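so my prof wants the structure for this chain in the tokens format not the other one, which i didnt know existed until like an hour ago. anyway here's the sequence
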Amino acid sequence: MSFLSLSSGDLIADRRAEYAEALLPGDPVAASEIYLQALDLRPDWVAGWFRLGEIRMKADLPAAREAFETALRLDPEDRLGAALCLDLLRGRSLADSMPSAFVETLFDQYAAGFEESLVDRLDYRAPELLAQGLSGPLGRVLDLGCGTGLMGIHLRGCQWLEGWDISAEMLREAAAKDIYDDLRKADLSALDPQCDAWDLITAADVFAYLGALEQIVGWVASALRPGGRFAFTVEAHDGPEAYVLRPSRRFAHAAPHLADLLDRAGFEARLTPAILRQDRGRPIHGLVVHATRRVPDRQGDLRRDARQLGPVV
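here's what i got, hopefully its the right format
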């Protein structure tokens, strides 16, 4: 479990922060000044420095970068995602994924109200959209980033269902549903290699927390049996970049780059545009991806091997 207190631990500092919040959004300058007064009392308050950076960044005030840098220095694990905010300020992402501690903290603190917020308020549809493209026997299934089990509900008819997630609190919520044969705490950026272990791997609304997907796609290609399926969603963008970091602090991916990556990793893939959910009343456009690992063509492999070896003398 990874929790980070949003309180400074000092009653007077907390009261000044509450007063500062009451001035928003109307007077961000005054709110920033009052937050600084609170931080004078508790200069080691990570969440206070982070919040000061957020206020300054949103209002385009100076010294937002310095506030985020202070938060990152005080909490090198970066449980609040200060490095992502620094990337947004510089207009480009220096990292190819989100800090693991940030993702873990986010979902540990979000787990209890996750489904109510995501499904009831944001019309979250990724699991249903992925399930619509799955047919036939599912075999052994791995649900990556399983969360509270919203994808797992659609997979229960399989031979074996396993769920992996970085958040212990999310796994606790998933266990209460009693739909998984096994649940495991795992960081998707540091998975142990597996070979031909799964018939289907799913990842619903998971890759918004990963920028570069080469590592995870390569891992899945190895972990799937030949002919195995890979079903996942990404948020979509239309620019030339393979991926971009959005103000929401989520990554979005471009269809041409994603299709090329899947092809190079040995998949036949279908990418379908769809609305994944709502955010502040606006639709979040994404891609629903169903990919199948190619079955090796032995004759083709032999011909390629012969060409690589050269003529027989």
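also thought this was worth mentioning. The beta strands are 140-144, 160-165, 182-185, 198-203, 224-236, 243-245, 251-253, 267-279, 282-293.
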